[in-house]
Structures are given as structure tokens and as C-alpha cells.
Write a structure and sequence with these properties.
Length: 51
């Protein structure tokens, strides 16, 4: 579980703006799969977990 959190926070660190907290990204709907950032995240997440 710690590794999963580290991976997600690393991904957030590479975004613009960098270093956003996961709960902020969720609350601000940045990870909504209908947004460009959300699509990128969903794609990365699927590749990460081979879904």
C-alpha cells in the first residue's frame, strides 16, 4: 500500500502544477476521466496495474 501511494504521489509531482495532493486533485476533479489530466491519469493507472 505504501508503494502504491508513493507511485501516485510521484505521478502528481510530475503534473502541472507539480506536487498537488491526491485529495485536492480529486476534489478539484482533475482526475475526472473526462478531463485531459484525468484521461492521462486513468491511462497511466491502467498501465501501472495492467488493467
Amino acid at each position: 500500500m505504501h508503494r502504491d501511494k508513493a507511485i501516485i504521489h510521484t505521478w502528481l509531482a510530475w503534473q502541472d502544477p507539480p506536487g498537488r495532493q491526491l485529495h485536492d486533485a480529486i476534489k478539484q476533479r482533475q482526475l475526472d476521466p473526462s478531463t485531459p489530466l484525468g484521461l492521462t491519469f486513468a491511462s497511466w493507472f491502467r498501465r501501472l496495474y495492467d488493467l
